[in-house]
Inverse folding.
């Protein structure tokens, strides 16, 4: 399988108990300096769940306890670098404060997430996550 | 993005109104000659929903009306060819009888699907689809 195919990423939606959303500030293009969900590319040989746990830990220092699938985001135009399909998870974490690492220059729970323009289609992912939390409670 | 990454496929779970499951018989390895869900690789530049519709039409001649995400299947061992991540959809189709095409030598609604050993992890996908139908009704 050597033909060109879409790349796969994961994104993590994490709320704390005060309904603040965990966001990182991107170190690298595209959307450098902008807020985004923690996430990144799935490695060959890695499950999407493992990739979500790894990226969350690398970028925010936080450990995932539970993951629930939000959806699959595959619009070919969602990433200016090329066709990237993202698998998004609603993640419950173990207690702890975020510390930025890897591709993130900041990692924080933000109270103002509703007003922020996030990178990629992350506003849409968050909207779907919010709808899912409302339905399942 | 030229490094080796997992490939992405889609699979379609389609039941008719008599609770029979749409299955194809695979023309090519792996699992040649075995029953499987209709599906295949997502093309670069194609959404996963469009890929599911296209593969369903190519392999069975049937047209998808509505798609609902079942889950994401990413175990690196699920495909003997290499790491393939599948996005599975529960699909409602327009009326019509299946006719085999493309990578399928047969396409039929099978009443005995509970007894069949399907290719890849398709038995697991069907089990999850059945659970989802039960919850949402």
């Amino acid at each position: 399988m050597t033909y060109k195919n879409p790349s796969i990423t994961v994104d993590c939606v994490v709320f704390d108990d005060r309904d603040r959303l965990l966001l990182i500030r991107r170190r690298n293009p595209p959307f450098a300096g902008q807020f985004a969900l923690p996430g990144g590319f799935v490695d060959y040989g890695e499950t999407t769940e493992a990739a979500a746990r790894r990226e969350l830990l690398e970028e925010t220092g936080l450990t995932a306890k539970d993951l629930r699938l939000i959806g699959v985001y595959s619009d070919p135009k969602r990433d200016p670098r090329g066709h990237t399909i993202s698998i998004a998870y609603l993640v419950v974490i173990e207690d702890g404060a975020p510390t930025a690492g890897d591709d993130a220059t900041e990692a924080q729970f933000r109270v103002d997430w509703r007003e922020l323009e996030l990178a990629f289609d992350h506003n849409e992912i968050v909207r779907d996550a919010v709808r899912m939390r409302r339905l399942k409670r």
Notes: The CA atoms of residues 20 and 111 of chain B lie 5 Å apart. Chain B is about 20% helix and 35% strand. The mean pLDDT of chain B is 93.
